[in-house]
Amino acid sequence: MTELRKVEDGEIITSLGYYDMSNDWYHRQCTEGPSLSSTGIRRLLRSPAEFWKHSELNPNRAEEPEKEAYVLGRAAHHLALGEADFGKHFVARPETLGGEKWHGNRTVCKDWLKARAEEGRAVLSPTQVEQIRGMAGVLDWQKGMTNCGLANTPLVAQGGALSGEIERSLIWEYDGVWLKARPDAIPGDSNDFADLKTTSSGVEDRDLSWTVMDRGYFVQAALVGMGSAAVLGRHMEGFHLVFVDTGNTHAVSIRTLLDEDIIRGERAVFTAIQIFKHCMKSGYWPGPTASQADAQPLSLPDTGRQNFDKRLDMLERQFA
Fold first, then answer.
1. What is the pTM of this model?
2. Residue 241: inside a domain
């Protein structure tokens, strides 16, 4: 395996490699030339304007607020994957402060939140802490409940589905663009990669199929496979998604992406690279409707039409 190299925040990467670096620096423009991660690629495919709005390459970029679901997902990753310094990145919100029950409008509470923000720590509510413990599988009521929380899932707890080198970065160059992949775990004894995903949409087949489609996880899988080949010289043999539900029983479902969908993801990566290069050269980052020069026809949905017509038929008979 390619030798792991430590990279400090602010250090510019100039060569292909396998890097130990902070998550924050990874998601910034850490390479000597413009770079794309899985998140950037998926945004470009939805709309170049969406990518450019928050890109560090944009001198007038808009700051991107961290959504509550992202905070929960990051915290779950830290605990589940055994990453160090959890307390450096997260802090539980106290239920009482200054001798009184917590209330966000109190000055002392606002000051406490401001201080945590200045420290760079995300604040977890009591509800989120309970959710994280449930996803980890350590709540009392989860004992003996198979696949309810990660600790109770045999493929994770005993099978090592998320074991390996945690949160390492694969960085390489393709066609003049730097590419970045950061799998949850780089396996040491196989070429099967796994990634932990939180979901609030359920863990049934239909739920997960649409989740993978909507969030472009197959594109992420393709990029990991490309990075493994380019940087580590290892052909990815499988990509597995470890889904854990944020609610109810915190059910866990492990799913393997099909090769044909990973190939589809590779095509998406190459397409995004071409979009990126074109937009960088032209300075034009179109939105999803930029090609619509004229007003477009819009039809009502067939089911809605039928239901409305039936309603009109009934009303016409009633008031004839």
1. 0.85
2. no
